[in-house]
Amino acid sequence: MKKILTLVALLPLAAFGQQIWQVNMAGSTQGGPLPSYSPQHLTINMNDIVRFSNTSGSHSADGSLQLFPSNPAGFSTGEPESGSWSEEMPFPIPGLYNYTCTQDGHSATQSGTITVLSTMGVAEVEGSADVKVYPSPTIDLLFIEMATNTARSATVVDLDGSTVLSANLNATGRSELNVATLAPGKYFVLVTDVDGRMTAKPFTKN
What we know:
Helix content: under 10%
Number of domains: 2
Number of strands: 15
CATH architecture of the largest domain: Sandwich
Strand content: over 45%
Oligomer: single chain
Shape: elongated
Distance between the termini: 36 Å
């Protein structure tokens, strides 16, 4: 039985306009076509769904943060598995995702990328030099610092994609967000500047 997918840092889905994209996994190192994804490189819109389908051999699609720490969020179809199966997963966070097959010997030829385009003017997810969020972990206060623009608002979502906190900031430089009432766990704070650009940053609440 196929494992249930794990998608780290899942943000809310927008069903309207959502499209499903197909990626086939096939091939073997034991003869015949080599392991591959088809298509190898895919460009989609934020909140679209990618369906990974195994058509031959034993494969996986692993874009976990352990393998690719620069991915905006981690995802995985689980351990490599043979047979006919499909796994669908949404991509709600814009950015460039790398992934590979973790079956022995497959990564040499079986790797891919998914570029997720923003539909809301998201400037960057993770690694933006213009937006800093600290400390992480935090107990009560989360500081949001913008180097070159003014922060208009901040929204905190949990890993299920539910909004748990929102606040108007309208501040240049450093802003404060009180997260003391949040349950301990991992969250994303979505910072929107006065130009409407959004940046998502992860943090941990102790």
